[in-house]
Amino acid sequence: MVHVAEDGTIAYGSPDFDWSILTVPTALAVVRGQLGFSWLEVSDRLATLTQAELEWEPGPDALRVVRRGTERAPRTLGVGEWVMEWPEGPDSPQPRTIAWLVAHLTEVFFERWEWTFGPHERRRGAVVFSGEVGAAVAGLRHEVDRWRAGVDALPEEEAFTVGLSRATEIDAQAPFVHLVAHLNRELVHHGAEIMVLQDLCRAAHVTR
């Protein structure tokens, strides 16, 4: 990816990413850079997401985001009109829709922000989800943006503070940069799933 820099020269990389962070020799800069670039990639793809792609079920019994009362899973998460269907167990073989993956990332970033930079009151069950593509993507953007703002504002000397987050027992025992790295992995992992599902959905609906 190339763009024209302010001085008129041709520069590599997206102008929406601060490439200078890649030259900063600190642990916090490493995870900030990974978070920022990974979100840029996922965010660009989400900007092209359609309602049909959001809802597309890649296999039988796929986990979805549906209106309350129409779920087919015994457990759900969410407090509003829409709920995300919860898997039967940690090793559930059920495929996931893009809607579910977007909702999952939303509740993950919501809870980590709440119990790191927020008032330490609400858990992921308090998230209001949506099955509409515009609101669903906007909800995820909101949670990632405020998580990034919190991480970006953290002083370098607090990068290895133990217990800065209280979201889980592991978080409370870990140096903070480990938690940032973990959420980066979540974003890369599920962001890649979203991209693949979007590609598969488009390929499956090509008019030949």
Automatic annotation (TrEMBL):
Residues 37-194 form the DinB-like domain. It comes from the Bacteria. InterPro entries: DinB-like (IPR024775), DinB/YfiT-like (IPR034660). SUPFAM superfamilies: DinB/YfiT-like putative metalloenzymes. This is DinB family protein. It comes from Cellulosimicrobium composti.
